[in-house]
Amino acid sequence: MTDGILVVDRAWRFLWLNAVGERLLGRSREQLLGQELWAALPEVGDTAFAPAWRRAMDAGTLVSLEDFFPPAGVWLESRAFPSGEGLVIFTRDVSERRLAENERVRLLSAEQTSRAAVEGERTRFQEMLMLAPAAVSITRGAEHRFVFSNLLHRRFYGGRDLVGQSAREALPELEGQGVFEVMDRVYLSGSSYVGRGRPVKVPRPGAPPEEMFFDIAYHPQRDAAGRVEGVAIFAYDVTDLVRSRRTAETLARDLGYSEERFRSLVTATSDIIWVTPTSGEFMEDQPGWRAFTGQTREELLGWGWLDAVHPEDRERTARTWESALSTRTPYLMEHRLRHRDGTYRYVLARAVPVLEKDGTVREWVGAHRDITRQRQGEAELERLLAREQRHATQLQGLASAALVISEADSVEQVLRAVTEQAREVIGAHQAVTSLTVEGGWSQAIHAVSMSDRYGAWRDWKESPEGTGIYSWVCRLNLPMRLSQADLESHPAWKDFGRHKAKHPPLRGWLAAPLVGRDGRNLGLIQLSDRHEGDFSAEDEAILVQLARMASVAIENTRLMAETQAANRAKDEFLAVMSHELRTPLTAVLGWTQMLRNRQSDAKAVEKGLAVIERNARTLAQLIEDVLDVSRIITGKLTLHRRGVELVGVVQAAVEVVRPHAEQKGVSLSLEVDVGGNGTAMLVGDPGRLQQVCWNLLVNAVKFTPAGGQVRVRVDRSERELWVRVTDTGKGIRADSLPHLFERFWQADGSATREHGGLGLGLAIVHHLVGLHGGVVRAESGGEGKGSTFTVTLPVPAVLPEVQTEVLPGAETAPAVKLDEVKVLLVEDAADARELIALMLRERGAEVSTASNATEAMERLTEALPDVLVSDIGLPGEDGHALLRRVRAWAEARDQWVPAIALTAYASAEDARKAYRAGFQVHLSKPLERGVLIEAVARLAGRDDVGAKAG
After folding, report:
1. Mean pLDDT over residues 215-234, rounded?
2. Collapsed DSSP state (helix, strand, coil) of residue 646
């Protein structure tokens, strides 16, 4: 590479450097590898690059700097950016560009100075003309309207101001003297006219015109396009000379020779002045020519001077020179002339003929001016202008690309639009955009755009694997620009994985990363084979901007798709929820209506009650699942951690599900292998762990047909516990496995699906296992091959003591008696009030009821209850406010009333609110009869052994 590359670790020790880096640092690789940079190269620490590199290391960000590097005596451009090991530093020698920029500035300054000088000379020239000893006037247009008239010219015509008037209007007395005719001829032909001793009758105030003699020169004045726009007239009063003819003629001849020679030399002023006879050959030594070209006197004589002209310009130069000689017209051309150092330089050649009085050419006076720097400056200016124009076009293309990208409706459309626009805006033959999935290339999405040059690869489908130079761009999240020479010098960068042989050939490379809002890499845009030359820094900046727009568009499109999917999932969930609620409600209502008419049929009554109870429990479970998901989403689902024996939890779940499995004809078995001590202790919430096991078991039984098997196995190692639930059921498709634990997701969401449910159970399992520090995964050989769900839980370093607890689903002992226990029941729902009162009265309790807080206070004054059972959601005044009134009334009489809160709001926060309000027990609806009876007995002091009979 032409760039120097240095790689140091975080302790500034050299890990690697290339040959360019060795040359810039003046040390070999063997001297520097493993050495600390500042110790091995103390002179670097005194440069401006040291603080920049330290800032890149400390801040962990890209730092660029261009400055003079004294150790190497060059100007360097440095880019330092952090890597996984430390810092990577790219350096480039930009001395030539710096010198070129300085030279351009110098040339521009020289040009401005020259312009000022020319302007000053023009002013001085006009002042000189105004005071010149000749009559000078300048006209414009075919009417010869005066635009300048000096003092002597005005004096000849009585001091009149002629400016603004045409010659014929201002000087009618010159009509018929041939003056106007000469002016017309010069204006129309564009050729100068010089007249010697021309007689002119000059008007005199109050006297006849005086005949005077003038040497007159008429010169055409041209505009910037070379068109004649006026005539300059110089008139010298030679009256005395004409009157003394002999003396005047001799003097005029000598004066004319000197004047013409001087004018010719001034016209051709430049660096190399030369003179040739009419034949155009060098007949005498030309010192200026020899000094510039290095030719000897013998080499340049004759036509030998042509040997110093560039071979490509030689024939044109000779042809133009011969044409000027034959037509006796000024010679002007630009060609390349060999300098004495062997280089060819651009020169401007001029020559004018020196004429005799009879119009013959006496000699040619010419000059060559070195204009190399001027041409270089013009070329550089043109290049900069073209570069600016191209950049402006690219910016317009970038704006158009933003509109095209914004109209894309999907990620695939965004990728196609970005790829096409990138190739068009930058101007390249190849463009590929790759979008990785979760940072991986195995399922990456690609969009390809090829010009007609690469028509054979237009349908190229081989996906890159993210290796080679791709990995640099995606890992560092930085753009990369390589010329063809860079690619050839690093063949490893052309490695695109297994399909590299089928990849279109690269000719230069430009890539920019796609970066998400969180800084993660999403992929990259890459271009190759630029239409003209190598990719530039401006191309890189445009592609980076395009990549940023594409990244935003991709993420916005993904968010919109996710939002739409969430809305669809919500709609589907509501439809499924309606179905799942209506199904058990239909059974409950139907059997209720049937039992009213068949009360004498004991079997029908027993079956109907079983159906009603089963469907009521199904409804309760559906509601509990929805509440659990709500707690998960809001982050309010918490665990009551304690020491738990996992085997007991699993056994309890198995026993709860076993009746359902037997009813369906599915075999349910449990295997335990927990090592020598036979325990599987962990820290967790026993109720939630049983919920995990119950959900997995119910799910397995649901999807296993009659005659199938469901096996549960508990294993342990030194650090982990495993619960595996294996079934021989329907199995899981491979494309469904990644979505199993998503909320509301179901493999079959159609109205004709075989199995019911809300699609919440496995999502709840996944979250609960995660709260316990574990993981759950699903495996299946495919449809019809069954499935296995494995829960992995961590074993604590210190085993806790087991706390026995009645797990959810186990019925409380039904033998508790409530004889003579006075209960005040406050419930606004009449059916629920009647049912709860019946439950309590069956156990011997004396129950008084109220539908609101006012009635409750009336019942309270009639008889003080042993236990208050109150719903929280009461009309007018809720249960919390009622309890405060009851406690105030009781304390005023030195009494105490324990209280149980009933609520359909079953979250942990609702329970905490009830406890803070003063309730001793919080029970959620629907109520388990045994739990309610036990809570009332305990608060009434009837939960001792003597209180339990039969």
Report:
1. 89
2. helix
**How big is the CA angle at 8 (ends 12 and 38), to the nearest 5 degrees?**
35
Burial class (CB in 10 A: 0-12, 13-18, 19+), 290: middle
CA distance linking residue 91 with residue 95, whole number of Å = 12
Under DSSP, is residue 747 helix (H, G, I), strand (E, B) or coil? coil
Q: Of 587, 283, 229, 550, give the one whose Cα is nearest residue 421.
A: 550
Model confidence pLDDT, tens digit, residues 863-914: 899 999 999 888 888 999 999 999 899 888 888 899 999 887 666 677 788 8
Which residues are registered as beta bridge partners of 363? 354
106: which residues sit within 8 A by CB, 6+ positions away? none
Q: How many CB atoms lie within 10 A of CB 686?
A: 25
Q: Let me know: does 887 contact 897? Beta carbons within 8 Å.
A: yes
Q: Which two tokens stand for residue 813?
A: 């002992």
Segment holding 220, helix H or strand E? strand 207-222
Contact 523, 433 (CB under 8 A): yes
Q: Specify the DSSP element, H or E, that contains 526.
A: strand 521-530
What is the pLDDT averaged over residues 335-348?
90
User: CA-to-CA distance for 909 and 914, rounded, in angstroms?
Assistant: 9
Cα 795 from Cα 716, distance rounded (Å): 9
Alpha helices, DSSP H only, in 508-536?
Answer: none
Pair 677, 637: CB distance under 8 Å: no
Q: Quick one: pLDDT at residue 884? A: 92
**63-69, strands of its sheet edge to edge:** 14-17, 4-9, 86-93, 74-82, 63-69
Taking phi over 0 as left and psi of -120 to 50 as alpha, with beta for the rest, 119 belongs to alpha
If we measure between CA atoms, which residue out of 201, 196, 195, 155 comes closest to residue 176? 201
Mean pLDDT for 908-933 is 83
Are 299 and 387 spatial neighbours (Cβ–Cβ below 8 Å)? no
The string of DSSP letters for 877-902 reads: S-HHHHHHHHHHHHHHTT----EEEE
CA–CA gap between residue 302 and residue 295 (Å, rounded):
13
DSSP class of residue 510 equals: E
Residue 926: cis peptide before it, omega within 30 degrees of 0: yes
Q: For residue 17, count CB atoms less than 10 angstroms from its CB and return exposed for 0-12, middle for 13-18, buried for 19 or more.
A: buried
Q: What are phi and psi of 611, to 5 degrees?
A: -65, -45
The average confidence (pLDDT) of the chain is 80
Nearest to 681 by CA among 802, 791, 804: 802
Residues in CB range of 681: below 8 A, 6 or more apart:
643, 644, 645, 646, 795, 796, 799, 800, 802
Burial level of 546, CB count in 10 A (0-12/13-18/19+)? buried
Helix H or strand E encompassing 88: strand 86-93
pLDDT tens for 508-561 read 888 888 888 888 888 888 888 888 888 888 888 888 888 888 888 777 777 777
Cα–Cα dist 94/480, whole Å: 19
